Prior knowledge:
Helices cover 40% and strands 22% of the residues. The protein is α+β, with helices and mostly antiparallel strands. It folds into 4 domains: 10-123, Beta Polymerase, domain 2 (2-Layer Sandwich); 143-267, Orthogonal Bundle (Poly(a)-polymerase, middle domain); 274-345 and 392-415, Poly(A) polymerase predicted RNA binding domain (Alpha-Beta Plaits, 2-Layer Sandwich); 350-387, Alpha-Beta Plaits (2-Layer Sandwich), CATH 3.30.70. The strands form 4 sheets. Strands 1-2-5-4-3 form a 5-stranded mixed beta sheet. A 4-stranded antiparallel beta sheet has the order 10-11-9-15. A 3-stranded mixed beta sheet has the order 6-7-8, with helices on one face. Strand 13 and strand 14 form a beta hairpin. The longest helix is centred in the C-terminal third of the chain and has 21 residues, at 298-318. The model has no long low-confidence stretch (mean pLDDT 95).
Amino acid sequence: MEILNEVLKDIKPSKEEEKEVKNKIDNFLKRISKGLKDAKAELGGSGAKGTWLSKAHDADVFVGFNYQKYKDKSDQLSDILEKHLKKIFKKISRLHGSRDYFQIKKEGFTFEIVPILKIKNASDAKNITDVSPLHAAWVKKHKKYADDIRLTKQFCKAQGIYGAESYIKGFSGYICEILTIYYGGFLNLVKNASKWKDKVFIDVEKYYRNKKEILDKLNLSKIYSPLVIIDPVQKDRNAAAAVSHEKFDEFICICKEFLKRPVKEFFEIKEISIDEIKERAGKDKLILLDIAALPGKEDVVGSKLLKSIEFIEKELNKKEFKVYEKGWRWDKAKKTLFWFIVDKKPLSEYVEKQGPPLKLKEYVENFKKRYKGKTFAKKGKIFAKVKREFCDADKLVKELIKNKYVKEKVKSISFS
Length: 416
């Protein structure tokens, strides 16, 4: 498909870019490795796998500590590495994770340095991060799919479903790699994914005989997601456990749409504008909120933003407002935008609250006491005519953004 070749020209690093990036990374690795005892720094992530995208300005670096010497000091690796890094770099940031890691910005690059135990088998891991180099080694065995993997990643990024972070719950880079390799290329992946149904099981290395055995061997929490991908290097792990039903369904839809109309637009990352949102709202009510996010680790900050918008939507629904669409735009460097498209009609001033059947006299009496002077009987049940607290969605949202639950999750929030 010619269009895929055109996309690759845009997303595949040129020889010059590869050389420039390689030099920067090699110099960085040498600086870290110098003076390290029983440990060595090496490139990880998409850089190590050869599946990185052009104009990427970040790199994962794993500092592998000798297993025999440090296997009983797994919880000390971050402290040991921090002391070493402080001798070399003036400014480092320590970030919390399953094992704390570090961020250093150098020469226009953001390096994330992760301490790990150097292992040969996933069963020896003391922490999930220890397995990461094994992922890279597995992907590198399938070099012929590197360009197809790039297409899959760009496709998912452009459609807003890339990333396993808790505020995205989408397709991680590793999942994109496994799927592309399993189906034998990007186009074959799209064709097959367009036919996915409710639950999909993928076992590339054939660790299990069938789906039933997977269901028997893996606990329920690992197979809850609609996509179950047995990790090629860790048979008791579902590599796609973070994928939500929403992102799974979105992926199926966009695969179908792409096959009907294969154009470059599917690979182009576009930031939605306020004008576009207004156009989508049409004559319905549009509520726009400006948010300043809290400082901190991206996954944590993003998760707080997601909880805030979900809380507001839930309360709108609870108060019987019809929410046709909700969305958010988070540019890490700028303010965040939440939007809600709500039915333009204000709610009635009064609402009927249904009570128990009239034959349940004790419950009926309690209901009458609760809604004194407002009750009436209809179709064998007791009802109460109650004045709504909110008839207008704007007024409700104004109260919701003052709520402690929202305020503690953002730096500031106000109507746009």
